[in-house]
Design a protein that fits this description.
Elements (H helix, E strand, L loop, with lengths): L5 E4 L7 E7 L4 E7 L11 E5 L2 E7 L7 E6 L6 E4 L18 E9 L4 E10 L6 E9 L10 E4 L6 E4 L5 E8 L8 E10 L4 E10 L8 E8 L2 E8 L7 E7 L7 E2 L6 E2 L9 E10 L5 E8 L13 E9 L1
Antiparallel strand pairs: 1-23, 2-3, 4-5, 5-6, 6-7, 8-9, 9-10, 10-11, 12-13, 13-14, 14-15, 16-17, 17-18, 18-19, 18-20, 21-22, 22-23
C-alpha cells in the first residue's frame, strides 16, 4: 500500500472551520481557525515564521501596493503590518494590462534578514510573458527595505531557498514558448550569491511536473534529510492543486508523492472552498506544520467567486 508523505489535513475543504494548535508568546493554546483567514482579494500566500511571529505575504497584481505583509502570533488573528514596495523604484504598476503586475511573492528569513522576492509581469500577451523577478531584503520586517535586485526573466513565481550550508537558491517556473510545446516547462533552479547580488552557475531544470501539468509556484523545504519540492499545478482555476515531490539531493531526481496531489478540491463539487493550490509551509515553535494556500468561495450553485482569490490555512502532518 502506498503511503503519502504528507499524511492528512486537520481541516477539511468541506468546511470552513477547524482546529489549529498554535503557539502564542507565552503558552500553547487551542484556537479555532475560520477559513479563509484572509478573506477577499489575498492571492498567492507565502508564509514564514521568525521566533513566535508569523508573517504572510500576498500579492495585488496590477493594483498598488503590489505586496501586503500580514502578522499573527497565533495563526488565527491576522493584521496588515506593512507594504514594502513603497516606491516606483521597487514597483511601477502604471499602464499595465489587467491581471499583470505583482504575482506570487515569496517571503523568507535566513536567520539574519528577510528576503522578499516578487514578479512584475509587464505583459502576458502572446505565448511569452514579459516577467521581471526582483529581490529586496531587510533586517526588520518594517524596513527599510533594500533597492530591488533584478534576478532573471525566465519565468514567474520566483522563490528563494536557504540551505543549511548557507547557500541560497532561486527557483521559478520556466517558460517554453516554442510552438507545440507546453509553455510551462518545469522548475528552474540557480544559485544566488548575496555578495555579488547576482545569480551564479548554470540554471538547471529540476522538475518537469506531474501529469497535472501547469507546474508553477515552487518552494523547497528540507526535513529529515529530504528536500521537499512543493509546487502548484493544474492551473489556478477549478483544477488547482498542490503537488509534493522529494529527493535526497537538491537537484533531484524528485519522486512525486504516490498519493499526489497533496491538496485539491477539483473532485468535490460541493466543497465550501475551491481552487485550492499555490501553497507554502510553516512550522510552529512546538513542531507542528501548517499550510497556507490560495482558495476561492463560489456562490452556491455557481462557479463565480466574487471575492476573488483568498488565503486559507490548514494543519498538515508529515509522515
Amino acid at each position: 500500500m502506498h503511503r503519502a508523505w504528507v499524511a492528512h489535513f486537520a481541516l477539511s475543504i468541506d468546511s470552513t472551520e477547524g482546529l489549529a494548535h498554535c503557539m502564542n508568546p507565552t503558552e500553547l493554546s487551542t484556537h479555532s481557525i475560520l477559513n479563509p483567514v484572509l478573506p477577499g482579494f489575498h492571492p498567492d500566500p507565502a508564509i514564514v515564521r521568525v521566533g513566535t511571529d508569523f508573517y504572510l505575504a500576498t500579492s495585488t497584481f496590477e493594483w498598488f501596493p503590489g505586496v501586503r505583509i500580514f502578522h499573527s502570533r497565533d495563526l488565527v488573528n491576522w493584521r496588515l503590518l506593512t507594504c514594502p514596495l513603497d516606491s516606483y523604484e521597487k514597483i511601477d504598476l502604471r499602464r499595465l494590462e489587467a491581471s499583470c503586475g505583482v504575482w506570487a511573492p515569496c517571503l523568507t528569513h535566513d536567520g539574519d534578514k528577510f528576503h522578499l522576492i516578487y514578479s512584475n509581469v509587464l505583459s502576458k500577451t502572446g505565448n511569452y510573458f514579459d516577467v521581471h523577478n526582483y529581490l529586496i531584503t531587510a533586517s526588520d520586517i518594517m524596513g527599510p527595505w533594500s533597492d530591488p535586485v533584478l534576478l532573471n526573466q525566465s519565468g514567474f513565481d520566483p522563490s528563494l531557498f536557504h540551505d543549511d550550508d548557507g547557500r541560497k537558491w532561486l527557483m521559478n517556473m520556466v517558460q517554453d514558448p516554442r510552438p507545440g510545446v507546453h509553455r510551462f516547462g518545469g522548475i528552474l533552479i540557480q544559485e544566488y550569491c548575496p555578495k555579488t547580488q547576482s545569480l551564479i552557475g548554470t540554471p538547471v531544470n529540476i522538475f518537469k511536473g506531474s501529469s497535472l501539468m501547469v507546474t508553477e509556484g515552487p518552494h523547497i523545504y528540507k526535513h529529515d534529510g529530504w528536500y521537499y519540492l512543493m509546487t502548484a499545478e493544474g492551473g489556478t482555476s477549478w483544477n488547482h492543486a498542490v503537488t509534493v515531490a522529494r529527493a535526497r539531493d537538491l537537484f533531484g531526481p524528485y519522486e512525486i508523492d504516490p498519493l499526489n496531489p497533496m491538496l485539491t478540491a477539483w473532485k468535490k463539487e460541493d466543497a465550501a472552498i475551491h481552487k485550492t493550490g499555490h501553497a507554502s509551509l510553516v512550522d510552529t515553535p512546538d513542531g507542528k506544520w501548517y499550510l497556507a494556500h490560495l482558495c476561492g468561495r463560489p456562490l452556491p450553485g455557481t462557479r463565480r467567486c466574487p471575492l476573488g482569490r483568498e488565503t486559507a490555512l490548514q494543519e498538515v502532518f508529515l509522515d
